[in-house]
Amino acid sequence: AAPAEADLLIGLNAAQEEAVVLPLDAHAVILAGAGTGKTRVLTHRIAWAIEQGMDPASIVAVTFTNKAASEMRERLRALVGDAVAQNLRLGTFHSLGLKVLRRYGHILGFRNPERLSPMDQDESVALLRRVMKAYDAGIDLKIEKPRDHYGLIGHWKDKGLEPQQVRPQKEASRELTRHLYAAYEKEKFASQTVDFADLILLSNRLFRTREDIAKTFQKKLRMILVDEFQDTNPIQLEFIHHLSNTGKSVSTFVVGDDDQSIYGWRGADADIFQTFMNHHQPCELVRLEENYRCTSVVLDAANAVIQHNETRIGKNLWTQRQDVGPFGLSVYADGDREADAVAEQIGTALQQGASPKEIAILYRVNAMSRPLEKALIVRSIPYKVFGGLNFYQRREVKDAMAYLRLTADPRDDAAFMRAIAVPRRGIGAKTIEGWQTAARARGASVFDVVQGETKPAVAAFLHLLNDLRVAYRDAGLVGLAKACVFTTKLDEFYIETAKERGEECVENLRELISTAGVFHHRLRTGGIAQESIAHHPGDPLSEFITEAVMDSDAAVHLSKKAETVSLMTVHKAKGLEFPHVFVVGLEEGEFPKISPFRESNIEEERRLFYVAMTRSKYQLQMSYALSRWKFGREDTEMAGIDDAHSGEGGVSSRFLSEIPSHLFGDGIMVGDKKSLPSPVAINGRLRGSDAGDWW
Ligand code: ATP
Ligand code: MG
After folding, report:
1. pTM of this prediction?
2. Three-state secondary structure along 659-675?
3. What sequence ranges are listed for the domain UvrD-like helicase C-terminal (predicted)?
4. Labelling 108: which of 2, 22, 252, 337 has CA 20 to 30 A away?
């Protein structure tokens, strides 16, 4: 049975209710800070519209992730019942675009549109690589990297530029990209596939060229609602405009927070609210200021930080909550001790009755999950890397591990096959298969089989394996780990991706080197149980590999538990909330992230930090480390090796100094010892002997 009207309005404050019950044909912007109930208002607005007689099939709601969509559907089930919630069109921009293409793709020339599913980024790059190989004028693939070109093509696509709309480029390489873009589109169409950007781009093209189809949608739809509107980019906006007849016949209801705009690099623009209002006159503007998520100390801290941004619309968040949760900042000697302490605190929270799913650890970059995973594994605390893979399952980490395994045992066929394929060295799949067959026939390893090969590429590979063995002999485990990343040119291979993923891969590879550094250190200081060394006396490499395999297994096992602690990047945490939140790695350079690959946008980094802090419903623990084992550089044996990043770590994030120090009450924690006058530690650079005094 449909609930009474009043039920839908229970649990809404006056401003929220005002937004929910706006006339059903009104356009509205709900512009409000974190935790003020925007998503709740959006959900209740849908229920309200249905309650007022609107057909659920005429409502489209766009969320930022598929998970958010399914959560919203759950909420609505409770509010309006299963049968009704079933008919709603609820999903991400991409999932809605895919629906449009599957339905009408034949008009664009797709033969089996109902079976369309988008290629991921790797598949798209592979397609571009094929295009480049076949390119008439001839391209030297050693100089012109497919991923670079793909990056620029993606950028154009995000801006909604089709090949013929891109202007001739002054720079030769970019001009080549422009031509490749056209060829890529042609080849993609010939193979009857689409990439991710196409889901929206092609839908837009369809709507543009076939007004009748756009009209069909517009006639059916009455209301479009968008959550996290601040991160909508221009082509997504165009998509909404097509569906809504630019708001002439369909009501548009968007909710968002300019302070949480964190996808500037994807073309989203914080002015979007103003632009939207200009296009949808008359438009209601509702502001929500009461926050229901955070404790007052968290809110005070978050408000203080975000006030440092100059480009913001400006809001004032407050809460009625009187309860206080644990709130603190801690400094640790290194990233592993930080991870250990966080896991320890989580263990305590669990013992006190918290459920793992109420706990999240947030970090700026994915590579930071590694020490945290280790600390959780050691304590058998179930966890899951949300929206990503655990450290040892990441492709680039597996690649580097293959080289480590080959160094330990060249007759490890699985490792051989993986390593010879990345980075690509022009050895065809057929050739490699041939070796495998020969090896099987002779009962030998692939390594044995290729000894007789004369191909230069194979000789070079065998030479490389030898270099790795020499690196291990001369420079130990850490030296070998470095060689497995740099001498193999895995780093260059992944850096080719230039954009987001490439950078992340290299960070993970570096983290693997750090892992080797930590391992080596533990080995020397007796941190590793003697009986485990006894298996392989004097062979840290086998020990290291064994431990990696065991950790990887444990990670998979732990992630399958019904309830898990969530580890995730701040980007992934948007819109979510947890009673216990740990934000780690708050060092200058890490958060704000200073990247060698792209200009950093401090205001956007600050918005990210604001998102991170405001995920907390009760406890918020922030921390940073004085060193991060980058490149395993703390290993004294390696100290002489030059290291571009040796300055990293140790300086607390500028954002921490933006939090009024009185909020920290007793001061900050240094290690597990208490209390240091906070300004010193927060602003100071604590290194070497300075740091020594405190632990
Ligand atoms: P974000 O900006 O992070 O996406 P939001 O504005 O969408 O946040 P919600 O997630 O909708 O905020 O709400 C935050 C929390 O406050 C939720 O747990 C929600 O259930 C609760 N909440 C919202 N409004 C009220 C209310 N009027 N009374 C009690 N709790 C509320
Ligand atoms: Mg929300």
Report:
1. 0.88
2. CCHHHHCCCCEECCECC
3. 296-575
4. 252
